[in-house]
C-alpha cells in the first residue's frame, strides 16, 4: 500500500480544474466589458473636443467689439446663421471636408420687441460632421447671450 505522508502536500486535479474555470469565467467577464469601455472613452473624447470648439466660437463672439458686426476669428456675422466644420485637432473650415469631424451650427433667434437687449445665439455641435441630422453619433447644444449695447 502506498500512503502519502502528511508532509507531502499539493493540489489535486479537481482543484486545479475548478481554479482554472473560475479564472476563465472572470476573464470572459472582463473581456466582455472592454468594448463598452472603449466606446465610453471614444464618446468622452468626442464630447470634450466638441465642447472645446463650442467654447472657442463663443469666446470669439464675446470678444467681438460692439462696433463690429462680424467676429474676428470665425467671421460669424451677428444675426446671420453660419455653419462651421472642425477636424479632430480643432482646426475649422467653412465647408465640409474629408477631415471634418464636427459640425457647428450658429443661429440667432429673433430679438423682436427688445430694444436694449443682448444678442442671443444658439450653438449646436453634432458629430460626425457628414451625417444627416437623424444619424448623428452625438451632439451638444448651448444658448449664449452677448451684450452688444
Describe this structure in words.
The chain has a 5-stranded antiparallel beta sheet with strand order 2-1-3-4-5, with helices on one face. With 149 residues, it is of the alpha+beta class. The protein is built from 1 helix and 5 strands. The protein is rod-shaped and about 100 Å long. The chain has one domain. 34% of the residues lie in helices and 21% in strands. The chain has one helix at residues 13-63, and strands at residues 82-86, 92-93, 102-107, 119-127, 138-146. The mean pLDDT is 87. A hairpin with a 5-residue loop joins strand 1 and strand 2 (92-93).
Tell me the domain tally: 1
Structure class: alpha+beta
Q: Provide the helix percentage.
A: 25-40%
The order of strands across the largest sheet is 2-1-3-4-5
Q: Mean pLDDT across all residues, rounded?
A: 87
* Biggest β-sheet strands, sense, barrel: 5 strands, antiparallel
Shape: rod-shaped
- Return Rg in Å: 29 Å
Q: What is the rounded distance between the termini?
A: 104 Å
What is the tally of beta strands? 5
- Runs with pLDDT <50, length 5+? none
**Helix and strand string, N-terminal first?**
HEEEEE
Tell me the strand percentage band. 15-25%
Instruction: Quickly count the helices.
Output: 1
Amino acid at each position: 500500500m502506498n500512503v502519502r505522508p502528511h508532509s507531502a502536500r499539493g493540489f489535486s486535479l479537481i482543484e486545479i480544474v475548478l481554479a482554472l474555470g473560475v479564472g476563465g469565467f472572470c476573464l470572459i467577464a472582463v473581456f466582455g466589458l472592454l468594448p463598452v469601455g472603449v466606446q465610453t472613452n471614444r464618446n468622452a473624447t468626442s464630447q470634450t473636443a466638441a465642447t472645446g470648439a463650442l467654447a472657442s466660437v463663443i469666446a470669439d463672439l464675446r470678444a467681438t467689439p460692439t462696433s463690429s458686426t462680424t467676429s474676428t476669428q470665425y467671421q460669424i456675422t451677428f444675426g446671420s446663421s453660419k455653419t462651421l466644420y472642425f477636424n479632430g485637432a480643432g482646426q475649422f473650415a467653412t465647408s465640409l471636408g474629408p477631415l471634418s469631424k464636427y459640425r457647428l451650427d450658429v443661429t440667432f433667434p429673433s430679438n423682436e420687441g427688445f430694444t436694449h437687449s443682448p444678442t442671443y445665439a444658439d450653438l449646436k455641435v453634432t458629430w460626425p460632421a457628414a451625417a444627416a441630422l437623424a444619424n448623428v453619433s452625438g451632439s451638444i447644444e448651448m444658448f449664449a447671450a452677448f451684450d452688444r449695447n
